[in-house]
Amino acid sequence: MSFYDVFCRYRNSEWEAVLAAVSGADIERALQREFLDFSDFLALLSPEAERYLEPMAQRARELTLRYFGRAIQLYAPIYVSDYCENACLYCSFSARNQRERKRLSLEEVDREAKCIAETGLRHILMLTGESKKMSPVGYLRDCTRVLKRRFSSVAVEVYALSEGDYAELVSEGVDGLTLYQETYDEDLYRIIHPSGRKRDFRFRLEAPERGAAARMRQVNIGALLGLADWRQDVLFVGLHARYLQEQFPDVEIGASVPRLRPFVGSFQGSCRVSDKNMVQIILALRLFIPRLGIALSTREDSRFRDNLIPLGITRMSAGSATSVGGYTKAAGQNEGLPQFEIADSRTIPEIMARLREKGYEPVLNDWIAGL
Amino acid sequence: MRVRINGREEALPDSVTTLQELVRDRGLVPEHIVIEVNLQVIFRDDWPKVSLRDEDRIEIVSFVGGG
Amino acid sequence: MLEDTLEIGGKRIACRLFVGTGKYSSHAVMREVLLAAGADVVTVALRRVDGSVKTENILDYVPQSCTVMINTSGARNAEEAIRIARLARAAGAGNWIKVEVIADSRYLLPDNMETLKATEILVREGFVVFPYMSPDLSMARRMADCGASAVMPLGSPIGTNRGLRTEELVDIMIREISVPIVVDAGLGKPSDACRCMEMGCAAVMVNTAIAVSRNPVEFARAFSMAVKAGRLAWRSGLPEIAGGARASSPLTGFLRDTE
């Protein structure tokens, strides 16, 4: 059994009709309950719930404070290779985009790492495009080894792997896995992933649980909001997160809420996700799964990010560069093209100061790896 | 011969050589009890067939009220 | 209303009050109690027989319709519990076993680790196993995972009649564990049993409270009614209690400027 079986049970439902049928009473009931079930989650994601954002926010804030306190974990992404064999319609790294590709040598990885570590951050997220040739598991292991010298927590956001490959990474010291399904709409998924290994919907869908089974401490999932109908995608993110939490009670499950941003390519996305929608998504997730980690990347601008913090965010990326080699400012070093445009370009000290102003404690180093 | 019954060392009269004879000797009601010899449960039908030997460990139990 | 039977160990149980048979003044009273309670599941124990004492077979007093669950009480470790289980089965008492392993004579609290060991082995040998345990979520998970038919967390120590002192932990177990939860030990009055059922327990087990009461037969009847009431309440859906305080300033006001 895997999440795919759960997914199949829910996938053909008439979600639009169900969401449209939600009443104020359903939402009020959901707001009263201590433990929400799926129909409560659905109610909170409905168009009707837009009128209840403030009470939802109050409840979400209370839950987040109770379960996470006032600590916000900061991390930085490091792109080590943008070689990619997939041709995803929504991504700058698409194989169809003619551009210079770059893969960092281990020495370059170390130099990037040094830049990031100087800010005080100790949590890093390593990203690559999908290329078994240019960024195979062996390369990922080598990079991990280099990163572990300066960071206490190394997570990866790379192409879907087998359980054995995840176990290899775990043995090297990787403790977190981030993997977005992009969209849970299988038909759309096939369209936006016209070629490459990423085309395999099910293999990707089952990857987070393989990571958990391989003993990752943290597993983060999500959908790229705006590709398909966001309400339906978030419904599945919630289902998926709850499934993972139930199957792997000792793994920290988290969700991210990346919104489609300007990038190199012409794909428009089906659906506009407004700021209000974003708020509703975060609130609904928080209420449905109180212990869910919720991460926010630098896709969102600083003012918006700051306002979202009390609503349930527990992790934020900071001081980010989304291009390969983007941190190293040494003369003559070429950066790759960014994967997406960054909207929050504040430095880490700036972000930390802002968090403190709001009464939150930025955490740069959550735990120390065993000796 | 000497055997252990319910943890206590006892000497058996010469006439008692099988489990069946032991039960009769003690005045026990067969339908109320279960017997184990050397950690093996012996069914009632087999009591006449089981010969006792020196140092055998015998447990005789019955069902009682319990929580 | 649809039939609300408890499916457990391959049987359909109608009465969710399980009754123990110890501490009664006589077997005859015990039998009356079981009939008054309408009990479907009954526990008995195995004890060494002293040849000089006249024996009765307690099973003769248990109504034919009852399913007998053998309690491994007296076992101080897994090995002893397993022996008792095998003895009981060989004696023709069926294969429902309540694993009770206690090495603590002061409070009579169960040893979760030995209980888990016994559970694992007995499940493999084909018994229908009900481990009696101190409420611990990870232990309960392991017991459920290795095939226990239900998990029986204590309400409060055996014989104390202090009620559901472990409510918080039992509540968590009910939410997280997929097998039925049967609270056992320490329930002192019918409202305790009712509370367990309202929370979502599959059943409760009561012995001491009934056996030592002034009128065991009537008390058993009261317990039985309480269990039914609690169960009905749970099935109808309990009202939720609203969460805590509200923050003073609005959290989504910033949205108005942008939309």
UniProtKB/TrEMBL annotation, chain A:
One of its GO terms (molecular function) is 4 iron, 4 sulfur cluster binding. CDD domains: Radical_SAM (cd01335). SMART domains: BATS. Its cofactor is [4Fe-4S] cluster. Signal peptide: none annotated. Transmembrane segments: none annotated. Residues 70-292 form the Radical SAM core domain. InterPro entries: Aldolase_TIM, BATS_dom, rSAM, rSAM_sf, ThiH, ThiH/NoCL/HydG-like. Pfam families: BATS, Radical_SAM. This is ThiH protein. Keywords: 4Fe-4S, Iron, Iron-sulfur, Metal-binding, S-adenosyl-L-methionine. Gene3D superfamilies: Aldolase class I. One of its GO terms (biological process) is thiamine biosynthetic process.
Automatic annotation (TrEMBL), chain B:
It holds the Pfam family ThiS. It comes from the Bacteria. SUPFAM superfamilies: MoaD/ThiS (SSF54285). InterPro entries: Beta-grasp_dom_sf, Mopterin_synth/thiamin_S_b, Thi_S, ThiS/MoaD-like. This is ThiS family protein. It comes from Syntrophus aciditrophicus (strain SB).
From TrEMBL, chain C:
Coiled coil: none annotated. It is found in: Cytoplasm. Residues 7-250 form the Thiazole synthase ThiG domain. This is Thiazole synthase. Gene3D superfamilies: Aldolase class I. Catalyzes the rearrangement of 1-deoxy-D-xylulose 5-phosphate (DXP) to produce the thiazole phosphate moiety of thiamine. Sulfur is provided by the thiocarboxylate moiety of the carrier protein ThiS. In vitro, sulfur can be provided by H(2)S. The active site is at 98 (schiff-base intermediate with dxp). PANTHER family: THIAZOLE SYNTHASE. Keywords: Cytoplasm, Schiff base, Thiamine biosynthesis, Transferase. It is an enzyme of class 2 (transferase). One of its GO terms (molecular function) is thiazole synthase activity. Its main location: cytoplasm. The keyword Transferase applies. GO terms for biological process: thiamine diphosphate biosynthetic process. Pathway: Cofactor biosynthesis; thiamine diphosphate biosynthesis.
